[in-house]
Amino acid sequence: MHIEVTSEPQANWQDQANCLGVDPDLFFPERGASTREAKEVCRGCTVRLDCLEYALVNGEKFGIWGGLSERERRRLRRQRSQAARRTA
């Protein structure tokens, strides 16, 4: 039996993100500061939904993830919760 081992790490969504190499502070603006620049980086990102789902599943409470702010993710979690209750 032959097992092939590669030294390259398995690619994941983060390796394909538009924000790779961008200053992380851009995605964690001070309270009341604009999120426009961070959201612009997210616009058109091929893994945007993966990023957003990661933030939702892991309860990320701060920063811009998948193009959404903390407040927008809270609203989305609430909507999903209400939809799940209606179908249950």
Describe this structure in words.
The chain is mainly α and 88 residues long. It has one domain (13-87). It contains three helices and no strands. It has helices spanning 36-42, 48-57, 70-87. Mean pLDDT is 88; it is low at 1-10.
Please write out the topology.
Elements: H1 36-42, H2 48-57, H3 70-87
User: Helix amount, in percent?
Assistant: 25-40%
What is the total tally of β strands? 0
Gap between N and C termini, in Å? 48 Å
Morphology call: globular
Instruction: Report Rg.
Output: 16 Å
Say what oligomer this is. Answer: single chain
Q: What structural class do you assign from the helix and strand content?
A: mainly alpha
Low-confidence stretches: 1-10
Main sheet makeup: none
Give the count of structural domains. Answer: 1
The tally of helices reads 3
Order of helices and strands: HHH
Quote the beta fraction: under 5%
Average predicted confidence as pLDDT: 88
Briefly say what this structure is.
By secondary structure, the protein is an all-alpha fold.
Overview features:
3 helices
